[in-house]
UniProtKB/TrEMBL annotation:
<dbReference type="GO" id="GO:0016829">
    <property type="term" value="F:lyase activity"/>
</dbReference>
<keyword id="KW-0456">Lyase</keyword>
<dbReference type="InterPro" id="IPR018376">
    <property type="entry name" value="Enoyl-CoA_hyd/isom_CS"/>
</dbReference>
<dbReference type="InterPro" id="IPR001753">
    <property type="entry name" value="Enoyl-CoA_hydra/iso"/>
</dbReference>
<protein>
    <submittedName>
        <fullName>Enoyl-CoA hydratase/isomerase</fullName>
    </submittedName>
</protein>
<dbReference type="GO" id="GO:0006635">
    <property type="term" value="P:fatty acid beta-oxidation"/>
</dbReference>
<comment type="similarity">
    <text>Belongs to the enoyl-CoA hydratase/isomerase family.</text>
</comment>
<dbReference type="InterPro" id="IPR029045">
    <property type="entry name" value="ClpP/crotonase-like_dom_sf"/>
</dbReference>
<dbReference type="Pfam" id="PF00378">
    <property type="entry name" value="ECH_1"/>
</dbReference>
<dbReference type="InterPro" id="IPR014748">
    <property type="entry name" value="Enoyl-CoA_hydra_C"/>
</dbReference>
Length: 267
């Protein structure tokens, strides 16, 4: 992951980079994402963040090649989602600097989660969206599911998670997830132009607007902040079963092992 690259006056470019894996998020990348956005939050000179994926994809999901090392143990699985993944996403959600997402190619799973933390999402016409982890034999973690449902809408989230459905950029724009869809050759100019326009405006006002919108969302059904906290409360109060108890299940192992073996899973 490349971070802190200046892209113009007051604009910082954050690039998701994992060569050969369509920028799939590794554990190290999640931790770096947290550090990057915590640093941005503390910086007085950053007026807008432009987040993108290197090459032809935004982010194809998680780095599944790492999964056998920790996913089959409930404690390690919980630490991965609650510390690594949510740590990165929470740092984005808590960031008062406006975030513009430049989305090209695959935006799947972790990519949708990261995009859900952004204020403005601009996608190339050929971008694809989804979270087909049902094919891998595991669910989306509660706070991550709450975040995605709040951003894409309940109907779309259910299709992504239950049907393993994927959607075009045009469909996601119609469903309210994307700010706009542009031709691929226009994506760079449109995304950077948006970030520069934001950076040219009053930075203090932008930070206050984000703080206000964050506070308002807490009182709106399906808001990411509210739903994420509600999910945590359900688990803490034992009203929801341990969401990581499936770690050593046969279908969890089968889904991941089948993917790594490049064969169809048998559930």
């Amino acid at each position: 992951m490349a971070a802190g690259e200046a892209a113009g006056r007051g604009v910082v470019r954050v690039t998701l980079r994992h060569e050969g894996r369509l920028n799939a998020m590794s554990r190290a990348m999640w931790r770096q994402l947290r550090t990057v956005f915590q640093d941005i939050q503390r910086s007085d000179g950053v007026r807008c963040v432009l987040i993108e994926g290197a090459g032809e994809a935004f982010c194809a999901g998680g780095d599944i090649s790492e999964y056998p090392a920790f996913r089959f143990d409930p404690a390690q699985l919980r630490d991965f989602h609650e510390s690594d993944v949510w740590g990165g996403l929470a740092a984005m959600l808590d960031c008062d600097v406006p975030i513009v997402a430049r989305i090209a190619g695959a935006c799947m799973g972790a990519g949708v989660e990261i995009a859900s933390c952004c204020d403005i999402r601009i996608a190339a016409a050929g971008a694809r969206f989804g979270a087909p982890i049902a094919k891998l034999g595991f669910p989306m973690a509660p706070r991550e599911a709450a975040l995605v449902a709040g951003a894409v809408g309940d109907v779309t989230a259910r299709q992504m998670l239950l049907e393993a459905a994927t959607f075009s950029a045009a469909e996601m724009a119609q469903r309210g997830f994307l700010s706009r869809v542009v031709d691929t050759e226009q994506l760079d100019a449109q995304a950077l132009g948006t970030a520069l326009r934001i950076a040219a405006l009053a930075p203090g006002a932008a930070r206050l607007n984000k703080q206000t919108l964050r506070a308002i969302r807490k009182n709106v059904p399906l808001a990411p902040d509210q739903q994420a906290q509600a999910a945590s409360d359900l688990i803490a109060n034992n009203a929801l079963a341990d969401p990581y108890a499936y770690a050593d299940s046969a279908e969890h192992r089968e889904g991941i092992n089948a993917f790594l073996a490049k064969r169809a899973p048998v559930f």
